[in-house]
Amino acid sequence: MNNITAAITAVGSYVPDYVLSNKVLETMVDTNDEWITSRTGIKERRILKDKDKGTSYLAIQAAKNLLEKSNTDPAEIDLVIMATATPDMPVATTGVYVATQIGAVNAFAYDLVAACSSFLFGMSTAARYIESGKYKKVLLIGADKMSSIIDYTDRTTCIIFGDGGGAVLFEPNTEGLGVQDEHLRTDGIGRPFLKIDAGGSLLPASIETVNNKQHFVHQEGKTVFKFAVSNMADVCEKVMKKNNLSGEDVDWLVPHQANKRIIDATSTRMNLPPEKVMMNIHKYGNTTSATLPLCLSDYEKQLKKGDNLIFASFGGGFTWGAVYLKWAYNSK
C-alpha cells in the first residue's frame, strides 16, 4: 500500500501595487460602494497596469516569493503546473515560459485550464504525481490577469475581478499529512452562462468580434450564483461526510473568493463559524485561479501542523469541487 501523501510545504504570492477601489469604480460605471459591498463583499481589487506584462509576470513573482521564503533551489523542481484562465498567448504555453524564467531548468511544465477551479483541479493533479513516487517537488501556480479580459464599461463584471498570483510547493509526506481526499465535478450545462465568446476555434478573432466586445468575459450572474451556492456547499458536505468530519473537526475552509454570499452559504452548510473561514475577497476581489493560494498566503502564519483544511471552488463551464488536506508544517 502506498504510504506517500502529497503535502504542501511552502506558499508564495504576489499582487500588483495598483488598487482599484469601489470609489474609483464609481467614476467609471454606474455603481456605488454600498451596492458592490452588499452583493459581493468586495472593497477593492489589484490591477496589473503594465500592458507589457501578462499572467506570466504574476506567476513568476509568486513563484520567486515561494522559492525565496522556502530557500528552495528551482533546479530541484520536477514539474510546474500553471493553473490559469488567462494564459499569455495561445499555443506557446505560459507554464513553460514561467518555469524557464524562475530557473526550473529540470522541470517539465504545462497549463491547466478549468476556469476558477483551475488551482483546485491542479491540487488533485499535483498530488497524483507526488503519490506516484516518481516526482519529489511539484510547483503549482495559480495566476490570472483578469483585467485583460474584462470590459470596464460593464458593471456586472468589472466590479468582481482582479489580478494576482499564488503558488504552493507539493512534496512527499510519510506522516499522513497533505491531500487526503477530493470530490471534483464538471457539467457542460454551464457553458452558456460564463464564457468568452470569441478568440477560440469556434469563433476566431475578427473585426466584428472585437467591435462586438466578444473577447470580454460574459456572465449571467443570477444563474452562476444559483449553481455556485448549491454545488460548492454540496461537495464540501460530501467530502466531510465521506471522511467522518464535523464542523468541529474542520479547522479551516479555504473557499474560492467569488462572492461573499456564496462563501457564507458554504460555511453555513458546513456548520463553520466565521473565524474558521479564510476570507480576503474584500482586498483582492475574484482573482480566479489565484484565490486559493492567496488565501493560504494571507493565513499561512495562523496554520498549524495537522490542521484540517477543506478547499472549495466553483468556476465556469461549470467546474467545481472540494479537496480535503491536512496541513504539514508550522509557520515560522
Radius of gyration: 19 Å
Low-confidence stretches: none
**Intertermini distance:** 33 Å
Class by helix and strand content? Answer: alpha/beta
What is the makeup of the main sheet?
5 strands, mixed
Helix count, per DSSP?
Answer: 11
Order of adjacent strands in the largest pleated sheet? 1-7-6-4-5
| Global mean pLDDT | 97
- Give the total of beta strands: 13
Percent helix range: 25-40%
β content, as a range? Answer: 15-25%
Q: Per the principal axes of the C-alpha atoms, what is the gross shape? A: globular
Structural features, described:
With 332 residues, the chain is an alpha/beta fold. Helices cover 32% and strands 24% of the residues. The protein is built from eleven helices and 13 strands. It has helices at 22-26, 33-40, 55-70, 94-101, 118-131, 155-158, 207-211, 221-242, 260-269, 281-284, 291-299, and strands at residues 5-14, 18-21, 44-47, 79-83, 108-112, 138-145, 163-173, 178-186, 194-195, 218-219, 252-255, 308-315, 319-326. The strands form four sheets. It has a five-stranded mixed sheet with strand order 1-7-6-4-5, sandwiched between helices. Helix 3 packs across helix 4. It is globular, with a radius of gyration of 19 Å. The mean pLDDT is 97.
Could you list some keywords that capture this structure?
332 residues, alpha/beta, five-stranded mixed beta sheet, four-stranded mixed beta sheet, 13 strands, 24% strand
Give a quick rundown of the structure.
The protein has helices at 22-26, 33-40, 55-70, 94-101, 118-131, 155-158, 207-211, 221-242, 260-269, 281-284, 291-299; strands at residues 5-14, 18-21, 44-47, 79-83, 108-112, 138-145, 163-173, 178-186, 194-195, 218-219, 252-255, 308-315, 319-326. It is α/β, with parallel strands linked by helices and 332 residues long.
